[in-house]
Amino acid sequence: MALSGELWAELPAEKRIFCSVLLFSWAVYLWEAFLAHRQRRVYRTTTHVPQELGQIMDSETFEKSRLYQLDKSTFSFWSGLYSEVEGTMILLCGGIPFLWNVSGRISGRAGFGPEYEIVQSLVFLLLATLFSAVTGLPWSLYNTFVIEEKHGFNQQTLGFFFKDAIKKFIVTQCILLPVTSLLLYIIKIGGDYFFIYAWLFTLVVSLVLVTIYADYIAPLFDKFIPLPEGDLKQEIETMAKSIDFPLTKVYVVEGSKRSSHSNAYFYGFFRNKRIVLFDTLLEDYSALNKESAEGEDGENEETKSKPKNKKQGCKNEEVLAVLGHELGHWKLGHTVKNIIISQMNSFLCFFLFAVLIGQKELFAAFGFYDSQPTLIGLMIIFQFIFSPYNEVLSFCLTVLSRRFEFQADAFAKELGKAKDLYSALIKLNKDNLGFPVSDWIFSMWHYSHPPLLERLQALKETKQE
Known about the structure:
Layout: H1 2-10, H2 13-45, H3 59-92, H4 95-109, H5 117-150, H6 158-189, H7 194-217, E1 224-226, H8 231-242, E2 247-253, E3 264-267, E4 273-278, H9 316-331, H10 334-356, H11 360-365, H12 374-385, H13 387-414, H14 418-431, H15 440-446, H16 452-464
């Protein structure tokens, strides 16, 4: 041990940094693989419905969810292994400086010399995201058209999938490249306090994106329609008014054309809040509950015409209970608290970036001996150097998220929705084939929402009153 310590101390600083990054990356991967192995063992061995679940889950659904989660876990193991090996090979083979040099040659041919660092950075970013999209495509195809298809969730055709992927890539570049160029420019001209200006810029960008996402970005991929007039809309507006939620619009998004998974969320700032419900959440509106999918405007050519699941979704009372939970997050300040935590973390990271960016050893560790590009510095520090901190922060946020979920459930109980939320959670778990049994360490580390049984137990007392 003493000898190995001496050898480690004799290594140049850049070598120690590189080895530390690589070792930590593999340590995290092995920890995640260990947790996943424990959870797969639960999937393999828990083949019968536990006694405490006998009243809420039939054996057929239990078996379906067990096999679905087992397939997902096995896929996650192989995709995670590939990702880790790919990342290691990129670092060992000097993939980052190689791609930077390629970007320089491309920008040079376009008439932009080495002094145009921001242009070269944008070319680098474009090539890096293109590489990531291409190498991830086979995994995405397998996940969608093998695993999700096998278990009845996929509603996409191959043509729709590729059109959607291309559209996502283009939209991502239209946002990513301008934002990155402005951020790099701010860092370049910001002087000693550039980290404050960079943080303020990212704060504004994040708030703008949250504001415009559902109105201008999400409709590029899914069809949003106002919730039709009727009892459900009236009851949603009444509930929102009762807690002073400034609701302006309620939308239904046709999520069923890509997947039968369900969801609901709200967005907007100040006095301009909107609620979005996936049609798969609504029993009365889900296209998957129809006897035949008679697509309008030619949409049946892009999505599967045969519905996978009958009578999916929740009744109106259960939808209201789910929304009561979601609005609880707003009423209890969870959204604001998450934004504050996120921005405090962002400010801290930019401050530490300002402290570390002048360390040439960091750049040399990843093959940049003669230059210190700002974009590469951002990548090295935020992705690699901060990785131990990011792991700890992620776990703390997971614990906090579970606490918030219990509080939102309790808020729905105060609205008198305990019974309906209880049945809604069971239905949603069934519709999404969630497996209600989990390894305690895996659950503690990964689950941002409490396990189903814990949530039901917390609701049970009020339900029985």
